[in-house]
Amino acid sequence: MKLWSRRSSIRARLGRLLVFAALVAGLCYLGLDLVGRSLMDRYLTSEEFVQRQDLRYLDSLRDYIEEESVTAWDADKLTQWVYQQNVVSIQVVRDGMVTYDSFYPEADFITYPSMGQYYEWGDYHDMTFADGPATVWLYGYYYYQYDVRLLVISLAGAFLVFLGVVMAGLRGTINYIRQLSQEIGVLEGGTLDVPITVRGRDELTDLAQGLDAMRSSFLEQTRRERQLVQANQRMITEMSHDLRTPLTAILLYVELLRRNGGDPDKREEYLDRLEGKVEQMRSLADHLFRYALSSGETSAGHTEAVTLEAGVGDALSELAACLTQRGFQVEADLPWDDRQVAVDCEGAARVLDNLTSNLLKYADPHAPVTISLLEGKDRAGIRIANALRPSADGAESSGVGLASASRVMEQMGGRLDREETDDGFQVTLFFRYV
Q1: Domain count along the chain
Q2: Quick one: 305 and 400 in the same domain?
Q3: How distant, in Å, are the alpha carbons of 145, 199, 251, 266, 311 from that of 246?
Q4: Same domain as 57, residue 35
Q5: In angstroms, how far is CA 398 from the centroid of its own chain?
Q6: Is 248 inside any structural domain?
Q7: Average pLDDT in the 196-209 region?
Q8: 176 pLDDT band (50/70/90 cuts)?
Q9: Which of 15, 92, 254, 274 is deepest in the core (most CB within 10 A)?
Q10: How far apart are CA 332 and CA 364, in angstroms?
Q11: SS3 call for 260
């Protein structure tokens, strides 16, 4: 989502920053120029400073005349010296006639003689040339020399102030860009838990928000993939446990067939139960196959509205028969009624198979296993209670069977409650009324 407007965009902010920096730089230039000119007016126009500079340039001219044997009429050499000094003008007068004037360096004063005139804004000094004495008028532009230097200093100072204001104004944006670069580096390293800093209301804000949304999307995708892996591992564990339970029952019925195979009625009963267990294993295998195709959670089949007896009666009878064949005593108190509950018959059979497996492992065969019916306001329940086998106190349990049974009950809209005491254990299966 766009969080910035034209007024808050980077271009607009940069434009306002440049205008502000230019104003500050202009004020800085005026301030430096004002202070500089005040100091120049105070020191460079004083009579003492002017006299000192005049004497310095006159001494330089005397040395030049002596070294180069310059005459009062030697315009070329005098012009060369004036150009070298760059801040003075001179006029040479002999016997009232001008022999050289730096204002007119090309003038031929021999052919066109000119009377010397007196300048009030300069000083006259006697000086000896190679061809005799003459009077030299000298005027120095010392103030203008420093005026150029003041201009350079003022412009340089204003530019530095302009650059400093711009850099100070961009520091926050530059630091934010560096911060985003560091956070992107963290993301490249695979750490997705560190959020991207979203700050301001400009194009960088939109960029940071987009990066953070992408980070959140990757994090959510990673979380979902991890959940799928965990669900896959849990499903394989539960299915493996659920497949072992009917296999145990099959082995039991095979053993009973070997012992009671001569009785046709018993034999037919055991074969029917074996067929049911094989069908249950086939159904579990189908569930596993569907899960592999969909890569999703296992789920219970479609629930249907039936009486509690119709939904779980057969599975409870098989549980009781299996326990009885193994030497357990089963006490059942099941006053069935006609109220209907939501039951997935296949899922309920899986749940009771898991409970049968747990009872065979951990229940005390010398104490009765009780099965009772509970009625609530909106639910009906079946409670299975048993005493714990003494040798099972220290036995390790993975908890897979009860966890799988609890999940199946939740998928059909019910609930599994468990309660463990020092010497007993009970599980209650609740089915909701419809």
Answers
A1: 3
A2: yes
A3: 111, 61, 9, 19, 19
A4: no
A5: 40
A6: no
A7: 83
A8: confident
A9: 92
A10: 17
A11: helix
Is position 233 within any domain? no
Range of the domain at 386: 301-432
Tens digit of pLDDT for each residue in 177-199? 888 888 888 888 878 888 888 88
Amino acid at 31: G
Backbone phi, psi, residue 121, to 5° = -100, 30
* Residue 170 CA: distances (Å) to CA of 17, 174, 183, 201, 315: 9, 6, 20, 15, 77
Q: Is the pLDDT of residue 301 over 60?
A: no
Instruction: Give yes or no: residues 170 and 310 share one domain.
Output: no
**pLDDT over 80 (residue 253):** no
Place of tokens 């039991």: 252
Give the C-alpha separation, 59 to 56, whole Å.
5
The pLDDT of residue 244: 67
As a whole number, mean pLDDT of residues 293-318 equals: 74
Q: Which of 122-131, 222-231, 289-298 has the lowest mean pLDDT?
A: 289-298
Instruction: Tell whether 39 and 158 lie within a shared domain.
Output: yes
Provide the CA 23 distance to its chain's centre, in angstroms. 38
Instruction: Tell whether 178 and 129 lie within a shared domain.
Output: no
Distance CA 317, CA 313 (A): 6
Using the predicted structure, report yes or no on whether residue 3 has a pLDDT greater than 70. no
Q: What is the CATH number of the domain that holds 370?
A: 3.30.565.10
Amino acid sitting at position 324: T
Q: Which residues of 324-335 are buried (b: 16+ CB within 10 A; e: fewer)?
A: eeeebebeeeee
C-beta separation of 97 from 115 below 8 A = yes
- How far apart CA 187 and CA 222 sit, in angstroms, is 13
Q: What is the three-class DSSP state of 384? A: strand
Q: Which of 375, 388, 385, 367 is nearest to 341 (CA)?
A: 375
Return the top range by mean pLDDT from 215-219, 231-235, 263-267, 399-403. 215-219
| pLDDT score of 186 | 85
Residue 395's pLDDT is: 47
Which CATH number belongs to the domain containing residue 135 in this structure? 3.30.450
The two tokens of residue 146 are 């420093």
Distance between CA 171 and CA 186 in Å, rounded?
23
Q: Flag whether 178 is in a domain.
A: yes
Using alpha carbons only, give the angle 382, 383, 386 rounded to the nearest 5 degrees.
150
